Amino acid sequence: PCLTRLCFSVAEKTGKVLGEFCRCYKEQYGVALFNSVRYEIEGNGGPQAQLLHRKVPLEDHVIYSGNLFQYIEENKKWRNRFCVVPHNYGLILYENKLAYERDLPPRVLVNSAGYKILTSVDQYLELVNSSLPGVTPKSGHSPILKCPTDFPLILWHPYSRHYYFCVMTGKEQEKWRAVFQDCVRHCNNGISEDSKVEAPAFTDAVRMYRQSKEQYGTWDMLCGNETQVLSNLVMEELLPELRTTIGPRLKGKAQERQRTWIQISDAVYRMVYEQTKAQYDAAMAKCEQERPQMESTIRTDMDQIITSKEHLASKIRAFVLPKAEVCVRNHVQPYISSILEALMTPTSQGFAEVREVFFKEVTDMNMNIVNEGGLEKLVEYMEKLSHLAFHPVKMQSCYEKMDQLKLEGLQQRFDVSSTSVFKQRAQIHMRQQMDDAVYTFETLLHQELGKLHGKDDLCKSIQRILERVLKKYDYDSSTVRKKFFREALLQITIPFLLKKLAPTCKGELAKFQELIFEDFASFILVENTYEEVVLQSVMKDIMQAVKEAAVQRKHNLYRDSMVMHNSDPNLHLLGEGIPIDWGEEYSGQPEAEPAADKRRRAKQVVSVIQDDEGVLPYEVGTGAVLQPGSPEPREPDPGAPPSSPDGVEEIREALVEASLGDEAEERLTNAAPASPVPKADVPSEARVPHAAPASPAPGAETPSPSAEMACHQPSDKETGEEVAPPGSECSPSQLMGTTESGEGVQTEF
């Protein structure tokens, strides 16, 4: 009965949160659709980018692959795993490299959205101890996790299951950490910005919902795809209730209770995810069904809607603006310059490092071509350079500049829970600017190749093109940074202002509803118009602060009056052409290559540090370390705590039966959309070419140009799971990712 009540409570809470959110989403959808159509008609006045933008940057490429050890919770043993990171940044774990090469199903597929990468067991234990208050192992007792080496890599999530890895050396740890952080950074940014209606409608709905619960400011768990974000939204409210209900009833030692709590949280998260996905998809479908009629109304009555909105805004402005201006003057304006300086210093250093890394890579390539000569060497280097932006290790020196970002006392004043939102956003901009610079460089160089005669001409052309691209990069990076600074300042100050003004303004907004014509009520909302007025109250100060900062030479920003006219009118036409494949175009291989072989042929962006399967130096815990290839026990671990009415297995299975029922075959994972992944005979460390006077960046690895990839293709589910083949049986414990059999795939959320 208590399990039934728990399942009912989870389903009821999820339904309640999703019901309120879907109402917000429907309202915001109409506003976002109106804004999109208006933007389309009126056009944009922003500066044109000078660099080209690559549409499909990592097609047929693998970011990284290699061996590391994974802790298997079910049998409490460490096993060697072969990990592949494909172009979609999912983590795919195979039994070993041989299983990968033989096209066998992977063991685990993980989407790292919402995870933190920890390199210390102490860091992990601190987070685990705080997740279940009052349950802390006594000193001298065995902790929840022991690592057999000094180089752990732990993926921690506040709601989902955790992943434990380790490697043998510090160099491997640093490389894997950079790769994992890149995966987290990419997966956190899971809401596509290409969607001009659904994306803003969704993010505004999340913000409006949280503000209705008196939760203002940034939110760390706004990460992943839409379903993951909504699941986090539900769990944020549900988890404290579960902790109060279930926590006191957990049995066993402190470590066992912690482990049980993590498993229960993971099981509930999966149940919430399933229900959330169904409800959100239904809301999306309903809005899409109504879209044609709404869009027709907008296009027909655009002028009247704009007039009506401006009339409403003028009335709200007269009521709100005097109060907002006082609030800005007293509580925001004195701190804008401090916030901006805190943002600008690490961000500008990061973008300067991007420029330096790009310059050094191209210069090294040019000098190596001088020493070694030949078009073949150019092709080899260009294949590596073309994916520089997606090389986590080489880009790490750029990304780590953002670690300096500290808002100090400002963070508490403006209710900023964490600076991670701003760090990751700036790092994504850095990667994009690097790829734009590289793509522009290779497009211009490719255009010049037919006109060059000899090695000297080639080297001079490379230098000339590099200088052109750097000028374009300086302009574009200035534009991107200024936009980032403005958005970050608004993201920090607007929630603070809304919270300050709420007691005197929010209760009075209902009276303005009568000013909106009923026919236009889907496209004009009082709440949104009120926020626009508040934004206008501080926007002038923010624009002025960024404008004044542009004058300071140390940040290398262009003034707003500096407009770089398009000096290459045909450059953007070149960017629309067929993507350049340096290896295929200049390798001299016959063109008649079977389509299947071409799909499998891929390059690896980061070379492998350690390709040989290793053995851990000693045993850990109660179980002996299993050698690669040895069978894993299928029986329950004898050391597991005795089952009780509140035991984790019973709770998890009951949750599955209550939530999934007959649809248990569709297993849920916390993984990214798993598009087909190339497989490769992954090479060992690539040979370093003839050394030039300019040496490669410290710690940078030279990617192997000869890696040929092909691999098992997981299903392209939104959750990235591996679906069992038809007819295969699936137990409730397998559904929840609690077993790892010899044949099956351990599906992960």
List the helices and strands and how they pair.
Elements: H1 2-42, E1 61-72, E2 77-86, E3 91-94, H2 97-101, E4 108-110, E5 116-118, H3 121-131, E6 152-156, E7 163-166, H4 170-188, H5 198-212, H6 226-246, H7 254-300, H8 302-372, H9 375-385, H10 392-399, H11 409-413, H12 420-448, H13 454-505, H14 526-549, H15 571-574, H16 582-586, H17 595-600, E8 603-604, H18 648-659, H19 732-735, E9 746-747
Parallel strand pairs: 1-8, 4-9
Antiparallel strand pairs: 1-2, 1-7, 2-3, 3-4, 5-6, 6-7
Helix pairs in contact: 1-5, 1-6, 1-7, 1-18, 6-7, 7-18, 8-9, 8-10, 8-12, 8-13, 8-14, 12-13, 13-14
Description:
The protein has 749 residues and is of the alpha+beta class. The protein is 52% helix and 6% strand. Among the domains are: 1-48 and 191-332, no CATH class; 62-188, Roll (PH-domain like), CATH 2.30.29; 335-515 and 553-575, no CATH class. The chain contains 19 helices and nine strands. Strands 1, 2, 3, 4, 5, 6, 7, 8 and 9 form a nine-stranded mixed sheet that branches. Residues 622-749 are annotated as: Disordered. Residues 61-185 form the PH domain. Belongs to the Niban family. Residues 689-707 have a biased composition (Low complexity).
Relevant terms:
749 residues; alpha+beta; PH-domain like; 19 helices; NIBL1 protein; Niban_1/2/3_dom; PH_domain
